[in-house]
Write a structure and sequence with these properties.
The protein is 30% helix and 24% strand. By secondary structure, it is of the alpha/beta class. Bound molecules: uridine-diphosphate-N-acetylglucosamine. Uridine-diphosphate-N-acetylglucosamine binds next to helix 1, helix 5 and helix 6.
Amino acid sequence: MDKIIIQGGVPLHGTIEISGAKNAALPLLAAAILADGEVIYQRIPHLKDISTMMTLLAHQGADVMFDHKNCLHVDTRMADKPVAPYELVKTMRASALVLGPLLARFGHAEVSLPGGCAIGARPIDLHLKGLEAMGAHIEVEHGVVKAHAPQGLHGARIFFDIVTVTGTENLMMAATLAKGETIIENAAREPEVVNLADSLRRLGAKIKGDGSGTITIQGVPSLHGGTIETIADRIEAATYLSAGIITGGDITVTKTNPADLEAFLTKIKTCGVKVDSGDDWIRCQAPKRENGEKLKSTNIQTRPHPGFPTDLQAQFMALMCLAEGTSDITESIFENRFMHVQELARMGADIHLDGHTAIIRGVSQLSGAPVMATDLRASASLVLAGLAAQGTTTISRVYHIDRGYERIEEKLKQVGAQIERHSTSEQLIPQGMLYD
Ligand code: UD1
């Protein structure tokens, strides 16, 4: 199993180019199932979750390949197996994204339930209710969702009790080929949802209102092929900006959209970080330690977009561990998304948990330690803590990081980090939570 080893305490300076967003690319890939033609993807990140989705599409009979210009071509016209098996689904919650498109295209689908949740069908119950409202008949047997819509799906008015990102995406995709109009109320407003709606429109879908809480889709008989582009990964961008901040450095991220990170940038400014941005770049300069300036603490509460993203909660906590004062971090999206707390505590952080809130008292220094990655973003927070800590931090179970960060050691080395990956031939036994 690979390990990442970091010698901390080096301020990071420089520029990092941001990759395409994992969470945008995954639904875009699932959308190929709807297209009666080849879909060409630009800016697909090379990540474990993306290869899982490619394998899933190939398993269904699609042609999937990268060309010499690094564009991904997906042609699902020959696909004939509307199934998502447990071996693939268990490693990635987002596999459920193929359910809506498969059902819309084939009239039936079998998708295993994602793991990582103890309460049966709960992680995708809202997806299933929405598809039922559109005329699907759904049964869950032995951990497999079996969905049928022999007469095809029809338009419906759907109100989500909870804002769900992949739920919104799944139903939006299904509705593109349903008969009539579908209205999704309390829809997710994440930039990745807008990227999907834009891309579906390029393939011939009729969608309005994406980016707001109400999305309206007029079904069309078919979608065609075309070329689509993934937006920048806002979570990756904020993680690298945080790496500069936590080490007392100065990082610029490029090929990214500052508007997608407003909640993070607003908060980080209140902590004393100097933020500059242009059309497609963001620069964060940490408080100048040589002038006696210090990172200040602040409180955050995770919320659906445009609120503070849950996928940045762990990284922000790493920053607050070294900030002056006390910070309350409340997780309102996922229960128990605090797996990183114990590991940060091993590095000398002072964190107390009170239900959904972590209370962090800033300390003047963290110390390197052996720690374990428990989920994707928790791993990112440990990398940040390791970059700032005195001494050596060894992070094990880094397959979690590889699910969502493209060439992380290379990108961090480029700005001065002392970070290495040690590969061993030990067998990979994935363990941990799948929040994203
Ligand atoms: C997506 C993101 C993930 C991010 C999350 C919240 C992708 C691939 N992943 O995950 O990185 O952390 O949004 O911003 O885009 N819920 C239900 N029933 C459902 C669906 C959701 O109870 O049918 C609950 C979830 O348990 C969670 C909340 O709703 O508590 C939000 O989850 P959701 O937005 O659906 O997360 P994902 O779309 O899986």
